[in-house]
Amino acid sequence: MQNRVFVAGAGGAIGRPLCRLLVGDGWQVTGTTRSPEKAGALETLGIEPVVVDVFDADRLERVVADAGPHIVVHQLTDLPPGLDPARMADALERNARIREVGTRNLVAAAVAAGAERLIAQSIAFAYAPGSQPYVEDTPLNLDGPDRAGLTARGVASLERQVLEAPLYGIVLRYGRLYGPGTGFGHPPKGAPLHVDAAADAARRAMTRGRAGVYNIAEDDGTISIRKAAEELGWDPGFRLATGR
User: Can you give the pTM of this predicted structure?
Assistant: First the structure.
């Protein structure tokens, strides 16, 4: 089990570069997708693809058990390409469900499989408004209106489940993504984060850092990334080699 990792959401914007990094590091990777069409692309990365829906708790438990991972990585989201504004309202509802119900199913499957560590994707833009830079113990915007509150409550559910599970839990609060596969070619305002650096943070959290929450973004004054730099040795300037 010591070199086996199960990546839920391997076909996503972060999942793909993460799997590329892990295979390069010598990990035996099992990665999930909901799309049979994406399974072949995952296989070309050198991983074992599994088609599964995180809401199918019974099948999810079986496939995680078959993978026998030491570490489980949660990179599941359900967002439209380029964060299409016309589709975001429904997407935020789906994402909140993944963070609550999907996380519950994945945590249960990881525990049942005997995994020891769980790394989960969260976000760094759900903090309650206040003075910046936000640090990891800044309150989330749980009472925010409409979409802001929905998102923050979903984030809080995910994080609580990961940190309270009988596993070594690490939550990565990612900034606003840009780079290949995200639909954004340039850094957005307010805690930008290149997708390659996001993947590298997850890779580092698999073997470094204390259990808990880490802000992961470029240091533009919006959030503090001191903890990630010190404990994970993470650098927001990390980029994969070109020629993907």
Answer: 0.94
Which amino acid belongs to residue 184? F
Q: CA 83 to CA 76: how far, in whole Å?
A: 15
Determine the pLDDT at residue 151. 93
List the domain boundaries for the chain. 4-232
> CB atoms < 10 A from the CB of 64, how many?
27
Digit-coded pLDDT (tens) for 185-215: 999 999 999 999 999 999 999 999 999 999 9
Peptide bond into 133 cis (omega under 30): yes
Residues 6+ apart with CB under 8 A from 243: none
DSSP string, 5-50: EEEETTTSTTHHHHHHHHHHHT-EEEEEES-HHHHHHHHHTTSEEE
Second CATH level (architecture) for the domain 4-232: 3-Layer(aba) Sandwich (3.40)
Please list, in sequence order, all residues whose beta carbon lies within 8 angstroms of the beta carbon of residue 118, skipping any fewer than 6 positions away.
71, 72, 73, 74, 107, 110, 162, 165, 167, 168, 169, 170
* Element spanning 113, H or E: helix 103-113
What is the band of 146 on the pLDDT scale with cuts at 50, 70, 90? confident
Q: Residues, the chain, total?
A: 244
The pLDDT score that the predictor gives to residue 13 is 93
Q: What tokens does 165 get? A: 């599970």
Placement of tokens 């020891």 in the chain: 116
